[in-house]
Amino acid sequence: MAKIVILTGAGISAESGIRTFRASDGLWEEHRIEDVATPEGFEHDPDLVHRFYNARRAAAMAATPNPAHEALAELEADPGHDLLVVTQNVDDLHERAGSQNVLHMHGSLFGALCHACEHRWPAPEVMAPSDPCPSCGRAATRPDIVWFGEMPYRMEEIWHSLRAADLFVSIGTSGNVYPAAGFVADAMHAGVPTLELNLEPSAGSRMFDEARQGPASVLVPEWVRERLGG
Ligand code: NAD
């Protein structure tokens, strides 16, 4: 059974109509990252941050998985493969394509988090700063998203899986955001072969054993067909 750890980023969802991140000069959907994706930004203007993620949630709900998400779900269903998808994405397109073993290292648009008591619950479609936490009752609701300066989720588990993998594949990620950008070096040090599938060479492209360039909707199904021997 081949153990494969897949890292995905915003690029895999681009052809589903969800815009990537740094494509436009450090702006995310016309907003400065500092304003909408940091704890300081949230403290400064929680209304703006909630409005921003409410819009991202609506866009994710309106989007549908593309052939790249579907191909990964098909590979996971194959009995010869043991797949873990580690995604930096906060959308749910992997799950909606049928992937089951998905780890959201940067959180999810569909989770809510109380920053007073750390209780978590499913996010309503529209969130506001005045929403009370269902556990402690305080108006301290935030999206369960990992912002810049915060520690991504389940890192020990990711590193453990990475070191035990037979292959590491990075798909649609710019290689600018750590610690995910360091996974290729971690895999390399553990002697795990590495493959990059991205529209253009990423910041760390040269570290991969192999790097293929093109749209994820073409490259990922092609690679999955190779794995499945078709
Ligand atoms: P990024 O936006 O920094 O980089 C995207 C990469 O994908 C680029 O290298 C680009 O060349 C490549 N790309 C673009 N279109 C592609 C396509 N059709 N096929 C293959 N590759 C394509 O994204 P990142 O590295 O994931 O880092 C951004 C951060 O922003 C993440 O932490 C994530 O949480 C957040 N984010 C998430 C979403 C989402 O959930 N869909 C969208 C935007 C940003």
Automatic annotation (TrEMBL):
Which cofactors does the annotated protein need, by name?
Answer: Zn(2+)
What chemistry does it catalyse, as a reaction equation? N(6)-succinyl-L-lysyl-[protein] + NAD(+) + H2O = 2''-O-succinyl-ADP-D-ribose + nicotinamide + L-lysyl-[protein]; N(6)-acetyl-L-lysyl-[protein] + NAD(+) + H2O = 2''-O-acetyl-ADP-D-ribose + nicotinamide + L-lysyl-[protein]
- Which family is this sequence assigned to? Belongs to the sirtuin family. Class III subfamily.
Q: Which PANTHER family match?
A: NAD-DEPENDENT PROTEIN DEACYLASE, NAD-DEPENDENT PROTEIN DEACYLASE SIRTUIN-5, MITOCHONDRIAL-RELATED
Check the record and name the Pfam families matching this protein: SIR2
Residues recorded as binding Zn(2+), renumbered to this chain, are 114, 117, 133, 136
Residues covered by the Deacetylase sirtuin-type domain:
1-230
Residue stretches spanning the membrane: none
- What name appears for this protein in its UniProt entry? NAD-dependent protein deacylase
Q: Known EC number(s)? A: 2.3.1.286
Q: Which gene encodes it?
A: cobB
Establish whether keyword Manganese is in the entry: no
**Subcellular locations according to the entry:** Cytoplasm
